[in-house]
Amino acid sequence: MSKSFVVRMVVWSALVLYMACDFYFFNGPLHKELRKMFPTPEDKIAQNIADGICARVYNQPIFLGQVDRRVREKLYRTGRDPEKVHATEQQLLRWAAMDELIDENLLRIKTKANSNEISVSDSEIDAEVLRFEKRFESKEALKKAMATQGIQNAKELRFRMAARLQQEKYVLTKIKKHITVSNEEALQWYNDHQKEIKMPERRRARHIFLATLDHPSELAKATLAKHLKLLKAGQINFSSLASTVSEDERSKTKGGDLGWMRKARLPGDFATHAFALPKNKPALVRTKLGWHILEITAIKPPEQLPFKTMKEEIIAAISDGRRADAVKQYRHQLRLINHLHVEIFAQVLRSP
Fold it and tell me: Which of 57, 200, 238, 339 is the most exposed place for a label (fewest CB within 10 A)?
């Protein structure tokens, strides 16, 4: 054997020995690089845990931070301090929040896959954004609420509202047959509950509205007080004033008319005023949304109504009662069908 051959054999033997030791004894750099290229299931789990990922839906991550933010939102809505929640309850809340996020991600994926069949108009999005904004008394309160929900700006808020509307429409196409109520079912319900059915007092109202979200409260009050004085003096009519001053986009084109209302279906602060004012006596009133010039234009006393009159309301009530169960069942089926595409890393939820 030549000297060069011996050298090559020694080098190759040393290389093979090093690789064997690297792979099987030392867990060296070659072994680590190979595992990065071809990770084992255990490697994937360890990496997800290290990254704070508690679940994946179609490989899209759900981070522990998202779960904890959802938990905080739920606690804040019920007036509870997240810092005072016991660790055991915190774990249960985390599991519930993660389940919600998994269901929402599955629904988002399904909706996106069928987006060509489900359209949402700009006007629908505008109305939804406006309804969201008017829940808050000031721009600061709105910004705080958006930050709590992880919404960075108005563009993202609009995007989320559009996505939610599209998802609601998609779900409706899936549950529609389960919440449809026949005339026979409605009539049976009416006959079974006839003694209990009585239409409560109803009032028809119109208003002129300024939101305190867009105006300082005292400025909005002073503006409407000035217009109310002119209104009472007969110097301007209600319809004209509503069309030029009111910020309620739904009613301003109808002279401020809000239609017939029942006390139980109104926000508490608005109902208190609407069902205390005398007829045809416009007044300046305050609600959490802003200031109103409110006038009651007609009053219907409580009465027993025939089935023909109650039919649409009965159908709506039965349908609404079925809706929650239908949505819950659909989400359950969605989870079962797609369970192979959902991974959960329970260890992350147990972290402090």
Answer: 339
User: Alpha-carbon distance 63 to 114, whole Å?
Assistant: 26
> Per the domain annotation, does 15 fall within a domain?
no
What mean pLDDT is reported for the chain? 86
Tell me the residue range of the domain where 234 lies.
202-300
Assigned domain for 282 exists: yes
The answer, yes or no, to whether residue 150 has pLDDT greater than 60, is: yes
Dump pLDDT digits (tens) for 293-340.
999 999 999 887 889 988 998 999 999 999 989 999 999 999 999 999
Whether 62 and 53 have beta carbons less than 8 Å apart is answered as yes
Query: CB neighbours of 139 closer than 8 A, spacing ≥ 6?
Result: 213, 214
Query: Quick one: 322 and 287 in the same domain?
Result: no
Are 228 and 188 in a shared domain? Answer: no
CATH number, domain with residue 250: 3.10.50.40
Distance separating alpha carbons of residues 63 and 347, to the nearest angstrom: 12
β-sheet with 202-211: strand ranges across = 257-262, 202-211, 290-300, 283-287
Confirm whether pTM is higher than 0.70: no
User: In whole angstroms, what is the distance from residue 74 CA to residue 85 CA?
Assistant: 12
What contacts 230, CB < 8 A, 6 or more positions away?
236, 241
